[in-house]
Write a structure and sequence with these properties.
Radius of gyration: 29 Å
Strand order of the largest sheet: 8-9-10-11
Number of strands: 26
Strand content: 35-45%
Shape: globular
Largest sheet: 4 strands, antiparallel
Number of helices: 0
Structural class: mainly beta
C-alpha cells in the first residue's frame, strides 16, 4: 500500500493485491477496510474500486467502480438509509430502506432507457383515453375545444366536437364502437363508430348519476357511478340498471379472466365487487378497505388497483375475489 499525494482534507492511498488464488479467510474473497483503533477517523472515502478476475488488469479509471462478477451489499443491521446514492450536493437520489422494505427514488425514473415525450393536444380538461379501430380517442370534462380529441399515432391530435356540454369522464371501445360516459350534464352517454362523429344516447338510467368508471368485456359495456349504481349495455345505446351489493362510490371497473371487477373510493367494508356477467354483483374485501381506490386494470393474469389515499395504495388479485396489498406501498 502506498500513500498518494495528500490534499488539504485527506490522504489518498492506492492498494494493489496480486494473488494466485483468493483473498480472505477460508478461501472466501473478502477485502476489509477498517479505521482500526483511531476513533478520530470517522469517514473513509473511496473514489474508485476495480475488481477483476483476470490475469492481466486493465487500466484504472479514477471515480469508476468496476466489478467483475456478482455484487452483494449487506448491512450488519437493518436501517432506513441502508444504502444511498447522492448527488454532489448531498441530496439522496436513491435510498434503500431495509427496515420497511422500501426503495425510494427522488426524481424521475426511466426504465430500460425509455423516456416519455410530451405531445401537444387541445387544452381541454382531459380525463380518459381509449384505443380502437386504429385510433386513440380522449374525452374531457370541460374546455372550449370540443371535449374530444383523436389521434392515429398518439402524437398528432385533432379536436372533435362532442354533442352538448356534459363532463365526460370515461371512454371505452368494444364491438366496433366507442362509448363515453359523463359525471355531469344533461346527457351522460354518447357513442361513435369512428371516434369523430358522436351521438348522444338519452336514457333515464344514466342521466341522473355520476358515472366514473366504464369498461367493455364479454359483449357488454359496464359503467359504475359514484352514487353506487351500475348499468350495462350490449350496444352502448340501450342501458339497463343493475344492483350493486353496496351503495359505495364506485370509481373504476375492468374486465379480465372472464369476470368484471370494480373498486370503490369510499364506503364501509368491502370496496371491491365482482360479476361474471355484469348483472349480478358480489362484494369482496379489497385487502385494504380503508384505502380510496381510484383506478383498476387487468393484464398478464392480474387485476391491479391503485388508491389516491390510505396506508396501502396498491392491491392485486388473480381472480378479482382474493386481494393482496403488497409491501404497504404508499406511493404518491
Amino acid at each position: 500500500m502506498t500513500n498518494g499525494a495528500p490534499t488539504t482534507t485527506y490522504a489518498r492511498f492506492s492498494c494493489t493485491f496480486t494473488t494466485g488464488g483468493t483473498i480472505g479467510a477460508s478461501g472466501t474473497p473478502y477485502i476489509y477496510i477498517s479505521k482500526g483503533t483511531n476513533t478520530a477517523v470517522r469517514t473513509i472515502y473511496i473514489d474508485g474500486v476495480q475488481l477483476e478476475a483476470s490475469a492481466t488488469a486493465s487500466n484504472y479509471t479514477e471515480g469508476n467502480i468496476n466489478l467483475d462478477g456478482q455484487v452483494m451489499l449487506k448491512n450488519s443491521a437493518n436501517s432506513t438509509t441502508a444504502l444511498q446514492i447522492q448527488n454532489s450536493s448531498g441530496t439522496s437520489l436513491l435510498t434503500a430502506d431495509t427496515v420497511n422494505m422500501k426503495l425510494e427514488v427522488n426524481g424521475d425514473l426511466y426504465a430500460k432507457g425509455i423516456a416519455w415525450s410530451s405531445r401537444t393536444t387541445p387544452s381541454d380538461a382531459w380525463n380518459a383515453v381509449a384505443y380502437g379501430n386504429g385510433l386513440f380517442v380522449a374525452v374531457a370534462a370541460g374546455g372550449s375545444n370540443g371535449r374530444i380529441a383523436t389521434s392515429p399515432d398518439g402524437i398528432n391530435w385533432v379536436s372533435r366536437a362532442a354533442p352538448g356540454s356534459s363532463a365526460w369522464e370515461r371512454v371505452a371501445y368494444g364491438n366496433g364502437l366507442f362509448v363515453a360516459v359523463a359525471d355531469g350534464g344533461t346527457n351522460r352517454v354518447m357513442t361513435s363508430s369512428d371516434g369523430v362523429n358522436w351521438t348522444i344516447r338519452p336514457t333515464t338510467v344514466a342521466d341522473s348519476n355520476t358515472w366514473w368508471g366504464l369498461t367493455y368485456g364479454s359483449g357488454l359495456f359496464v359503467a359504475v357511478s359514484l352514487d353506487g349504481f351500475v348499468m350495462t349495455s350490449p350496444d352502448g345505446i340501450n342501458w339497463t340498471s343493475r344492483t350493486a351489493p353496496n351503495a359505495f362510490a364506485w370509481t373504476s371497473v375492468a374486465y379480465g379472466n372472464g369476470i368484471f371487477a370494480a373498486v370503490a373510493w369510499s364506503g364501509t367494508g368491502n370496496r371491491v365487487m365482482t360479476s361474471p356477467d355484469g348483472i349480478t354483483w358480489t362484494a369482496h374485501d379489497s385487502g385494504s378497505d380503508t384505502s380510496s381506490w381510484e383506478g383498476l386494470t387487468y393484464g398478464n393474469g392480474l387485476f391491479v388497483a391503485v388508491a389516491d389515499a390510505g396506508t396501502n395504495r396498491v392491491t392485486t388479485s388473480p381472480d378479482g375475489i382474493n386481494w393482496t396489498s403488497p409491501h404497504g406501498c404508499s406511493c404518491q
